[in-house]
Amino acid sequence: MKITMAPTGPLSVNTYYVLDENSKKSFIVDPGGYDPALAGRIKEDGAALEYVVLTHGHGDHIGGVAAFLAEFPEAKLVASKHELEMLSNIGMNFSNYFGEGIALEPDVCVDDGDILEVGGMSLKFIHTPGHSPGGLCVLVEDCLFSGDTLFCRSVGRTDFPGSSFAELAKSIREKLFALPESTKVFPGHMEETQIGYEMRHNPFV
Questions:
Q1: Interacting residues of 36 by C-beta distance below 8 A, sequence separation 6+
Q2: pLDDT digits (tens, 9 = 90+) for 77-119
Q3: At residue 106, what are phi and psi to the nearest 5 degrees?
Q4: Taking Cα atoms as reference points, which of 102, 66, 77 lies closest to residue 27?
Q5: CA 69, CA 78: separation in Å to the nearest integer?
Q6: Contact 15, 38 (CB under 8 A)
Q7: Burial classification of residue 109, based on how many CB atoms lie within 10 Å of its CB (0-12 exposed, 13-18 middle, 19 or more buried)
Q8: Would you say the pTM of this structure is higher than 0.85?
Q9: What mean pLDDT comes out for the span 173-181?
Q10: Could you tell me if 50 and 18 are in contact, meaning their C-beta atoms sit under 8 angstroms apart?
Q11: Which residues contact 73 (CB under 8 A, 6 or more apart)?
Q12: Which pairing describes strands 184-187 and 143-147: parallel, antiparallel, or unpaired?
């Protein structure tokens, strides 16, 4: 498994391109904006882009969805079934703050514990409400794509409609901190971290 990160969109969201080098199948996580260099990398690798995965529906994480799906029409959009209202409602997802409002309808809706296969990779979805009602983390081998649930020494904001600090803290403590301490965390913003490090050093949980 090979992971490439590119900051995209107006708030420099960490967009991840994840490639199974054996099968040449891949997925991306949270395209906050369209990055032609990242799209070019996928083509240079000769990769089949299977899925565009959203950890949640806020506007800064979805701005590049339409362009990537147009560039790779075989790819399917994946999001939590608990995030459908936000994704379809421009007022709720704040996408109009970053330009033209965006309303999306996922091709694949997932819930806690669901698994999708991408080549030799198994994507396990963990429902982590708190930052948003349908917040998702995606576990692939020993790598966790945590969106805006867990950051390095921080957590996602909980001052949005539908947010809850109590729910966010519960999601992190009961679900994410149950993972092996060596699990690498690839967040939606800021630098990479590890579950064990956050268990010991994150002041919010």
A1: none
A2: 999 999 999 999 998 888 888 878 999 999 999 999 999 999 9
A3: -65, 150
A4: 77
A5: 12
A6: yes
A7: middle
A8: yes
A9: 98
A10: no
A11: none
A12: parallel
Q: Rounded to an integer, what distance in angstroms lies between the CA atom of residue 126 and that of residue 171?
A: 9
The residue type at 111? D
Tokens 């032609």 — which residue?
A: 36
C-alpha span between 81 and 153 (Å, rounded): 29
Q: Encoding tokens for residue 87?
A: 């994704």
- DSSP assignment string, the chain: -EEEEEEETTTTEEEEEEEETTTTEEEEE--SS--HHHHHHHHHTT-EEEEEE-S---GGGTTTHHHHHHHSTT-EEEEEGGGHHHHH-HHHHTGGGGSS------SEEE-TT-EEEETTEEEEEEE-TTSSTT-EEEEETTEEEEETTEETTEE----STT--HHHHHHHIIIIITTS-TT-EEEESSS--EEHHHHHHH-TT-
Q: How far apart are the first and last CA of the chain?
A: 30
CA–CA dist 11, 9 (Å, integer): 6
